[in-house]
Structures are given as structure tokens and as C-alpha cells.
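WARN retry 2 of 3 for item q-0093 after timeout on previous attempt; input resubmitted unchanged.
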Amino acid sequence: MTLAFFLALVAFYENPFARYWQTFDGNVITAMFQPQGSVPFTPADGRGLNPLLRHPGMIIHPPMLYLGFVSFVIPFAFAIAALVTGRTDDRWIRITRRWTLVAWMFLSLGLVLGGRWAYDVLGWGGYWGWDPVEIAAFMPWLTGTAFVHSVMIQEKRGMFKHWNTLLIILTYLLVIIGTFLTRSGVLSSVHAFAQSAIGPAFFIFMAVTFIVSISLLIYRWNDLKSESELKSVFSREAFFLLNNLFFMSILVVCFWGVFFPLISELFTGQKVTVGPPFYERATSPLFAGLIFLMGIAPLSAWGHSTAKTLGRAMWKPAVAALVAEAIIIVMGLRNPIALFGFFIIILTLFITLHELWRSIRARGKATGENFFLSSWRLVGRNRRRYGGYIIHISMVLMAIGILGLEMFQTETQGTIAQGESLKLAGYTLTYKDLAVFDTADKRNIARAVVDVSKDGKFITELNPRRDYFYESQQPMTIPGVRSTMEDDLYVILIDWQPILAT
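OK item q-0093 returned
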């Protein structure tokens, strides 16, 4: 069905093999084959590729997102087939497990690479601006991540069958919606680089897919009953259910934020935009809850667990996290939100590392293997569990960077003459020189030379610049960036006086 739809789009709406033809009366038409009474027409050269896309990350970022999007079609197709045939076991989940992991991996890589592209190219010092198209790619990641976790409960306990079917249906629909938002031009976005007439066809396809999928789910609802019941609020099943609810809550926030401008314009005639403050305030507590769950969920037992059992498993990492929190306070941090966020992050990190260390040590004692060999073979024997731990550690490390950027980012702006300096967060930025020149690829480059020093010692030289593309008549700001484990220094050239002026 999906393949037929996109083939129809290619054949009837956006044929990549269509050419320009000029008729004898001077009209220019597009057709795949030469119409009678026409000759080939060669249009003048266009403006070239959008300057924002001329970045190495654009070689990798779109294919990663594309592979993530299309790979989720496989588990969706198997889920629909299971609904049609009435199969209520987990065979379709086991068959498509690798496809699901591949889809999730590529979609995750695409989002991360997109953030890096924004940081390097857009010139505003951020990696995520809660842009509508960014969120359109993020929403299927939310449901896909919930699905990756939730299917384990069906495999282990025969539960969450309704959840899993609904999650993969939503993931597929959100993939289609994301493609629709990017290609239809209904939303204003720095990522919406193309517009076409495929909007109505996409909308009809989404509506038909939604109606058919949900109708099948409702029809088989009673057949998808769980094989066991939730018996403890501290069990692993309960924590995974809470995990699903957190992901769905973030999805609701994102979905509402993306479509609220369209809804407001439809009913009031005015498009009311939703900015980053809305998303950050609404999703921050939910993300904090997810990070905490990453730590405690693996400690709980299947079927039944108690608060006392969890306490015994996590008291050592909790004490270590409190010690780390005390050190942070002694170092001068007083912001309560930042302190709470760092405590949750550090606690989850220590719990995960402690569980890894316990497992590696136990295997080493049992087999006599050294630490590295024991680690390698332990992960190899249970890649699903310990691979998940590694992913959790990477997410926690990302959370540290995100919290640091959101809470401690400082900035300044000023106009300085050659030889003058600006001070920011202990750094001294000295403007040394400016060069303006043309290049062979039809760009005009204005490049500044900025010396960076700290505590009176020279550190490095940065070269922020602005490229102006003559063909597309578009400027592009390229920041000068110094990245370390401690911080990033991000310098942007906003404007300048003529090079001979003093």
C-alpha cells in the first residue's frame, strides 16, 4: 500500500524523469516523453543549491532520517497483517525486531546529525530550536522509542498488546505526517526546502491509513487482551507502562505545538506561533521523569517488586549521587532547578554504571576472565540488556550537555574596532583583522580574525565569517567555534564596517 502510494506520487505528481518541452507557439510544458510538435527546452541556470544545505552533514543527515522513516514501514506492515489475520501472539514482534532497531538507530542518528548541522550552519548557537519540521521528525522517534521498550513486555509477559499495536500504528502515521509537513509547505520552517502539489494526495492517504488501521485495532481489541495482569506498582511492567505514558505525554505536547498555529488560523484567521519556551516548560518535567525511569526500571523485577527491594538495589548509587551533588554545591552552583536536574542525571548514570560493574565483576569471578574480556563477552551474551545500558549512558551524557546549555549559556554582543576586545565568562575576545574577498565558486566572504585568551594567556584564533552566494543571493553565517570538554565558545560575525575604516 505504501509503495503503491509513493509510486503513484512519482508517476502522476512529481515525476523525476519529466523534462521541459517548448511548443511551436512558445509555451513551455513538462512531460516525460516528447509531445508532438515540440522541441527540447533548456532553461537558464537556476540559483543553485540552498547555501544552508552546503554542509557535509547534509550528505548524511537526510539519508539517515529517510532510512529511519522507511524502515518503520516493515513492523507496521507486520502489525497490520497480524490484525487482519487475527494473530495475537508476539511472532510479528520477534520477526521485525531487527527492523525496528535499525529504524530507531537511523532515525536517532538523523536527529543528532540534524542538531549538529543546525549548530554549525544556522548561526544562533543552538542545536534544537523546536522548529515544526524538527518536531515532525522527533514525534515518530518518541513513539518508536516507546515501542522498542514496550514490546519487551509482550515478549516476556504477554502484556501491552494494545499498546504495542497502537504505538507502531502511530509511528507509521507520524512518519507520513512528517513527510507531509516537509513537502506540502503548510508550515513555515527553515527545514521546509521544497513545496509541491502533493498535499491533497498525502492528506487523503493519511486519512485512509488512519481509518483503516484504527478500525482494525478496534475490531481485534478483545482478541488482544493481556495474558497476565499488573500486580505491583513497583514491578518492571509498571515502570514500562509509566515509560509509555511519559513518551505519549511528550508526543501530545509536540503535536499540539505543531498544529496549534494551523488550528488558530483556521478558526480565528490569525496564525499564533508556539515558541521554544512552551515546549521547554511543558516537556522538561516529562524528560526528567524518563531519565529517572532509565535508572530504576532495570532494577525492578518482573511480576512483583517492592520499594524495599528497589531501595536495596539503588542505595549505593544514591549515596554516590548525593556526594557528587554536594561537590557541585561546594563549587558554587545554587540554581535549584539545575541542582535537581543534575541529581537525577547523576543518579541514573551511577545506577547504570553500578549495574554494569556488578555484572562484569560477577562474571569475572565465575570465569576468571579479566575485566575487558569479561565485559566483551558479557555484552555479547546479552546484547539486548547491556546494549540498552550503553544507550542509556549515552542519553544521560546528552542530558548533561542539554541541561548545561539551557541553564548556563551566557552571551554578549558588541561593536568593537580593530584591536578592541570583548569579555565573556572569563574569555577575552580581541578583534584583530577582517578580510573581504571573492572565491572561484562565486562567493563573497567576509572573514574576521579573533584572538581568544583566558587569564591573560592566548588560547586560539577563531575565524567567524559571512558567506554571500551571488547565484542564490543569500548570505550564510559561519560561526567560529572552540569546543572543549568544559565548554564551547561560539563567535558570530554579525556586521562590519568597510575594511579600510577605523
